[in-house]
Amino acid sequence: MLYDLDLTIEEFLKAELPNLFGDSVSTTPIAITFVTPIESIVTPPALNLFLYDIRENQELRSGSWSVTRKNDGTATREPPLVRIDCSYLITCWTTDSKDFATEHRILGEVMQVLMSYPRLPSTVLRGRLAGSDLPLKTSVLGQAKLQNFGEFWQAMGGKPKATLNYTVTIPVTVGENVATVPLVRDKQIQLEPI
User: Fold this and answer.
1) What is the distance between the terminal CA atoms of the chain, rounded to a whole angstrom?
2) pLDDT tens for each residue of the chain, 194 residues long
3) Distance between CA 170 and CA 1 in Å, rounded?
4) Which residues are CB-contacts of 135 (< 8 A; sequence separation ≥ 6)?
């Protein structure tokens, strides 16, 4: 499911910013990577989306099962979906580590596109996400799940970089407990003398 989300975001960025990430770029296109944001690992030029936090969205939790009525007189019961917030730290890497102007320009274009879509379009959904009935809600520049960016970059062994925080909420099916049950179609009332 997480790999499907990576493919979805990559497809989305390529579709929305073909001048940066598409195959038709006259210069070297910028790669979209999902590796740990360490200078020795990221090969520039690249836009790196590091999945740093995965947690259940408690606000969207539902305890009720969904019931779907069928034409054959039965219904299916399915367990509630779990909603997961997947948070990415987005950084831009250029061949010249001191070229902040290019990094900021690219991050600005990416930020503008991400902010324009509060939900990922269904046309870019990949893998198991493509069959989802629920929209994949997004949040840009929201509260990062990291307590301290300075400590994060120190732990990564690098210098701080300009970053965007991007969170996508995906639905995850838990268990395969789909039950088919007959529907109640008739009522019978019996009256007894008192």
Assistant:
1) 62
2) 899 999 999 999 999 998 888 766 556 778 999 998 888 888 889 999 999 999 999 887 777 777 777 788 787 777 778 899 999 999 999 888 788 899 999 999 999 999 999 999 999 999 999 988 788 999 998 777 766 777 777 777 777 888 899 999 999 877 665 666 666 667 778 888 87
3) 9
4) 119, 120
Given a contact cutoff of 8 angstroms between Cβ atoms, the answer to whether 82 and 174 are in contact is: yes
CA angle (173 as vertex; 119, 6 as ends), nearest 5 = 45
Q: What's the one-letter identity of residue 118? A: P
3-state secondary structure 82-102: EEEEEEEEEEEECCCCCCHHH
**What does the alpha-carbon distance between residue 125 and residue 121 come to, in Å, rounded to a whole number?**
7
Q: Which of 147, 178, 135 is nearest to 8 (CA)?
A: 135
Q: Cβ of 43: how many Cβ atoms within 10 Å? A: 12
pTM of the model: 0.79
Dihedral sign computed on CA atoms, order 7, 10, 13, 19: negative
In terms of phi and psi (left: phi > 0; alpha: psi -120 to 50; beta: otherwise), the region of 142 is beta
Place of tokens 């600005």: 108
